[in-house]
Amino acid sequence: MSEEKILTVDFTQEDACLEILPRSPLVSSYHARWEGLRLDVHQQPAHETPEHTPYQHVVTVSLEPQVVQSERILDGRLQHENIAKGDVAIIPAHIHHISRWQSEAKFLVLSMEPAFLTRIAIEAGNLDKIEIKPRFAAPDPLIQQIGLALQTELKSENGVSSIYIESLTTTLCIHLLKHYCVISDAKLDNHEHKGLSQWKLRQAIAYIHENLDKDLSLVDISAIVGISMYYFSRQFKESTGMAPHQYVMNCRIDRAKKLLSSTNQTIEQISSQVGFQSQSHFTNVFRKLTGITPRVYREQVKI
Asked: CA-CA 20 to 30 A from 136: which of 86, 175, 186, 241?
């Protein structure tokens, strides 16, 4: 196929998928405007994509319970694939790609801005040129888990948590850098992590407690202590034993306990005060962390 006939697909455009796929995605994060990352969930019939190159790095995760017979041409190499549920393929930006599959297939597509991945690499201490390696479909449990978690968060009726999306995106970036990039793993693994200084930790915790009623962002919290989002997330976990989004959820539930025991506010009012977008989400998280519902907790502490 001649060079001028090869499509270039830009996933920052809403209907980009329709340039290479017959159906629109079932679910998309396009309107959510996640920083550096887009998620599309697809259910597609048997199909052959035209030859194309993506502007973004593309990661696909199979959601189809049945094995899908497929052929893929990736960077000029042809490979036959038996794609099982959870298998992951990686198509780097500007790499030529064709995929053809012989039966109905459900899969998710993560498209990541190369500049975003480069920024994370620089923050992680690696200043080398970032070059993602193409990868034919094969298992990668961590990428599968991240993709499913992002899908669940996007489809949640309780609203999307910015800090959780940012944590998942950062984890995905670091995993790609460590395992699918032409760079030195040692530069990512051997950086000394001693946690935040006591002063920066107090700053971060104070900011979290002062803003529990808001949709807290990892970017905003890390800016308060003046370090990158990547290092903040790593050092905060070193200092507290919890990822930032886990710490925030625990703080919200601790504050909710105090309000349940010391006020007569309704559970719906309390859930809003501690940063939940719905009472049902608040109840689910409360039960997960305490083993009981907010209503039962209130009844027990007021006996």
From this structure: 186
